[in-house]
Write a structure and sequence with these properties.
This protein is mainly alpha-helical. The chain contains 5 helices and no strands. Helix 2 packs antiparallel against helix 3 and helix 2 packs parallel to helix 5. The longest helix is centred in the middle third of the chain and has 29 residues.
């Protein structure tokens, strides 16, 4: 399996709700998604400190936003297949997380 097919399978499995909601929310969104956002922000701050063009700094800082939106919608779609308070809380948590990582 090539890297591109693995990447496609990763996104497809999350979009279609094949991945369990707990793994999608806690590992993919909270842990990995947050780590990617922190790394992007640190890289942007380093570039800013090096006095590189602001457009480049902003591009690096906001680069994870499409991935963040994808993860949030994937949680919504997967939670929509479930019922109960847990699914609702994870939907709310994903929404709040998206707002937090985009604003911060």
């Amino acid at each position: 399996m090539t890297i591109m097919s693995r990447v496609a399978a990763f996104f497809r499995s999350r979009w279609l709700g094949v991945v369990p909601l707990d793994r999608l929310f806690w590992r993919d969104l909270v842990v990995v998604g947050t780590a990617i956002n922190v790394a992007s922000s640190v890289a942007a701050l380093i570039l800013l400190g090096l006095k590189l063009p602001l457009a480049l700094v902003l591009a690096v800082h906001f680069a994870p936003v499409p991935y963040n939106i994808f993860l949030t919608f994937a949680v919504w779609r997967t939670a929509g297949k479930s019922s109960g308070a847990k699914a609702s809380l994870m939907t709310l948590g994903a929404t709040l997380w998206l707002i937090l990582v985009v604003v911060a």
